[in-house]
Amino acid sequence: MASTSHGSGSVFRGESSESDFSPDQHLIDTLLTQVDNETVDAIIETQKQSLRRFEKTNEMMSNCNALSEKRLERAKKEMAAHKEMIMQMKVDLEFTFRRIRIFKNALATKYPVIYKEVEMEMKKEGKLKMKGVDDDE
């Protein structure tokens, strides 16, 4: 901001009376006389440095956002694939357990005495195992 001084009065105007000033112009002229050019230049340079830093930071944040977006997309694809695998495993397990129930029912119908004996033996082993686990604690 270059200022030209005309006389000992204001910065932009020649010597004039207070009545020639509007209140806004008087405030501007008063402020201009309070600050020298070196200070204004220093403020402008500081603002330019801040602007460069903010632009650099903005660029870094944009890069980070782009990387995060790519990783999110990759994670979504992996998650969808894992979900599909889990759903297929669930279907497979349901099929397997259904086949086991059918097989057990067929054995229970075909060999009821042997099936009951084996079932009782398995229940006893299950109880003994549970007691063994409880005793270890």
TrEMBL record:
<dbReference type="GO" id="GO:0099078">
    <property type="term" value="C:BORC complex"/>
</dbReference>
<protein>
    <submittedName>
        <fullName>KxDL domain-containing protein</fullName>
    </submittedName>
</protein>
<dbReference type="InterPro" id="IPR019371">
    <property type="entry name" value="KxDL_dom"/>
</dbReference>
<feature type="coiled-coil region">
    <location>
        <begin position="65"/>
        <end position="92"/>
    </location>
</feature>
<dbReference type="InterPro" id="IPR039843">
    <property type="entry name" value="KXD1-like"/>
</dbReference>
<feature type="region of interest" description="Disordered">
    <location>
        <begin position="1"/>
        <end position="23"/>
    </location>
</feature>
<dbReference type="GO" id="GO:0032418">
    <property type="term" value="P:lysosome localization"/>
</dbReference>
<keyword id="KW-0175">Coiled coil</keyword>
<feature type="domain" description="KxDL">
    <location>
        <begin position="31"/>
        <end position="115"/>
    </location>
</feature>
<comment type="similarity">
    <text>Belongs to the KXD1 family.</text>
</comment>
<dbReference type="Pfam" id="PF10241">
    <property type="entry name" value="KxDL"/>
</dbReference>
